[in-house]
Amino acid sequence: MMNLPLNVDFTGKVVVVTGAGGVLCGEMAKAFAQAGAKVAALDLNEDAVKKLADECKAEGYVCEGYKANVLELEALEAVHAQVLKDLGPCDILINGAGGNNPRATTDNEYQHEAKEGQKTFFDLEPNGVDFVFKLNFQGTLLPTQVFAKDMVDKQHGCILNISSMNAYIPLTKIPAYSGSKAAISNFTQWLATHFAGSGIRCNAIAPGFLVSNQNRKLLFNEDGTPTPRTAKILAGTPMNRFVESEELLGGVFFLCDDKAASAITGVVLPIDAGFAAYSGV
Ligand code: NAD
């Protein structure tokens, strides 16, 4: 059982979470289930969402896992039909699937520091850049096309996208990821406007820097001391620390709660220990 940050009640709400096989959205899916929602956990990684669903069921919560590629419209429509049968029409959609790719990442921060043999800006692969833009942008647009239909029918619903710190100001090395997350912040405003008359709110969270198993080695040396990149991150973060994944849940619950956030649509909420607010000076 998780220690939930807000006492909100999502009883009976059908919450569809894409990328629920991953770290952040798996935790969100579990938290919604614990708060009474009927959760549809979608991911390319079927084993991960089936495991998540089993864990939730073992605690007495309602959660079903579905294999779904957020880039395949027909497959998403088939999953939608199954979710309708199993749980009912979607009330809340969390567009969590997303990420970066090494083919769209430079080895060096600055061209003038590039060394022989490193992947520079000039070596970025067009298909790697396409992959990242497609995953983050289309991977948010397509599930929204499929699941927001339920919300239009009910004239009620909520969409939550996942933006990032690099949507505000790009981070070095990852131009495609930064650009695609900027597109997500922009698209959040577009959706908010487009669906406002249909009773649907659309917002996003922009998580700050989190330590995960994938990036731990980049952030900390074996003896636990921070790497140079970590020192830069912390120097740019007024609260001088990383964000814990469970610290995202308060913002997620708040933005998805119809009472608490009834007049809030089109915002991107940074949950970042102050990173986006600080100029560095
Ligand atoms: P993660 O890699 O743990 O999870 C992402 C999940 O998406 C994985 O389970 C993966 O299988 C799934 N996925 C990938 N491609 C898919 C596809 N085509 N169809 C369906 N599922 C697919 O990542 P995470 O750290 O939990 O990140 C979740 C979201 O938060 C992403 O949008 C990410 O960009 C964003 N984000 C993460 C951080 C961070 O520090 N971890 C910071 C800001 C934003």
From TrEMBL:
Organism taxonomic ancestry: Bacteria, Bacillati, Bacillota, Clostridia, Eubacteriales
This protein's UniProt keywords: Oxidoreductase
Highest taxon of source: Bacteria
Protein name as it appears in the record: D-mannonate oxidoreductase
Keyword 4Fe-4S: no
Annotated PANTHER family: 3-OXOACYL-[ACYL-CARRIER-PROTEIN] REDUCTASE FABG, SHORT-CHAIN DEHYDROGENASES/REDUCTASES FAMILY MEMBER
Enzyme Commission designation: 1.1.1.57
Pfam family, one: adh_short
Originating organism: Intestinimonas butyriciproducens
InterPro entries: NAD(P)-bd_dom_sf (IPR036291), Sc_DH/Rdtase_CS (IPR020904), SDR_fam (IPR002347)
GO molecular function, one term: fructuronate reductase activity
Family named by the database record: Belongs to the short-chain dehydrogenases/reductases (SDR) family.
Enzyme class: oxidoreductase
NCBIfam families: PRK08277.1
SUPFAM superfamilies the UniProt entry points to: NAD(P)-binding Rossmann-fold domains
